[in-house]
Amino acid sequence: MRFDVLTLFPELFHSYLQQSLLKLAIEKKLVDVRLWNIRDWSTDKHKSVDDTPYGGGPGMLMACPPVYGCVEAAQADGTEPGRLIMLTPQGRKLDQSLVRELSTYRRLLLLCGRYEGFDERINQGLEPLEVSAGDFICNGGEVPAMMIIDTVIRLVPGVLGDETSSKYDSFGESGLLEYPQYTRPREFRGMTVPDVLLSGNHAVIAEWRHQQSIERTRRKRGDLMNE
Ligand SMILES: C[S@@+](CC[C@H](N)C(=O)[O-])C[C@H]1O[C@@H](n2cnc3c(N)ncnc32)[C@H](O)[C@@H]1O
Q: Is the pLDDT of residue 167 over 90?
């Protein structure tokens, strides 16, 4: 799967691309991430990419010419244009069901805003899918874009060592939160591992985990039980 990140700060991704799971996925050629600097498509001698809003108001907006130039160059690079995603707090909120949808594409272009956001004609003319990381304002679209890459690659076949692990994650196939997990030591500061997990009886363990998932989803995220 290919991701193209269109940003004013490509260097923010350099260390991120070196982290364990993503680094391995790139090395195994399961995932490809290309970085595009929108400033390279600036059309003036000052290399500017933003301008003041018509009608007044605070801050600056990302202007059409460099953004269109960068998006069109990225789309033309490769055998398919891919799906353009605009990172914006006004978009559809990222959740596991949207992550699953995004993982069905072979190529995603992630357009990251800065300043006060984008000239509206970028939306109007390029018709991106608008995606939000949540109901809060980040300084830029880069961290939300990393969230998309981070969540989507987990569903790319071969990226996770154990293919079943994303199935049992919270919000996985059951739609429930994951059951409680324990590792060695068996006792820590007076807290013990539930006996059932030491029983070796896989059917009983599976049933216990399922009941725990239901109970903790009801307790922590009752909203998920009603969906
Ligand atoms: C400071 S924000 C601009 C917010 C804009 N003035 C508004 O109220 O909708 C700058 C950029 O950060 C990104 N951004 C901020 N919050 C985001 C979020 N919750 N999800 C996705 N992108 C976000 C967007 O790309 C946005 O254009």
A: no
